[in-house]
Write a structure and sequence with these properties.
By secondary structure, this protein is an alpha+beta fold. Helices cover 26% and strands 32% of the residues. A hairpin with a 4-residue loop joins strand 1 and strand 2. Helix 1 runs parallel beside helix 2. It is globular, with a radius of gyration of 17 Å. It starts with 9 loop residues before the first helix and ends in a 7-residue tail after the last strand.
Length: 148
């Protein structure tokens, strides 16, 4: 039986990127280039780690945000890290870098040398969405206010 080629679902990808834009805008607020926000991810009595948002670059129509997480397993495994571009004119946020790998195609042949899934780009943006949604639902800011 022949396997049919994966066809990029642009509607789903665009929807995910639009939702991620709204989530990130809520989390970064009026932050500017060079600023960082740390958000503790907690349950009832558990600390699941900290979500870190850093505005790397900012321009009139785009913002580049580094998103990472640190947690209890840092000595064993590196936490997830990604770079996200916010496109303000179209109100979309797209993952452009994940764990030091850049420029993801909308579709990959499978199998491939890097072991990307056929819909790797969509999966990364969905992961970002779940990550941000969790931060919005269960996060508590741990920013320390600056003293005058």
């Amino acid at each position: 039986m022949a396997r049919t080629a994966y066809v990029t679902d642009l509607k789903s990808l665009q929807g995910e990127c639009s939702a991620n834009y709204l989530r990130l805008v809520r989390l970064v607020g009026d932050m500017e280039a060079g600023q960082r926000r740390d958000i503790a991810l907690r349950g009832d009595k558990q600390h699941f780690g900290d979500l870190h948002l850093y505005i790397q670059e900012q321009a009139p129509y785009t913002t580049m945000v580094n998103v990472s997480q640190t947690g209890p397993l840092d000595t064993v495994i590196e936490g997830p890290r990604m770079r996200v571009h916010l496109y303000h004119d179209v109100r979309m946020a797209e993952v452009t870098d994940f764990q030091r790998e850049r420029h993801f195609s909308g579709r990959y042949r499978y199998p491939n040398a890097r072991m990307h899934q056929p819909d790797e780009k969509l999966q990364l943006n969905r992961f970002l969405g779940e990550w941000l949604a969790h931060g919005l639902a269960h996060g508590h800011t741990i920013d320390v206010p600056e003293m005058p």
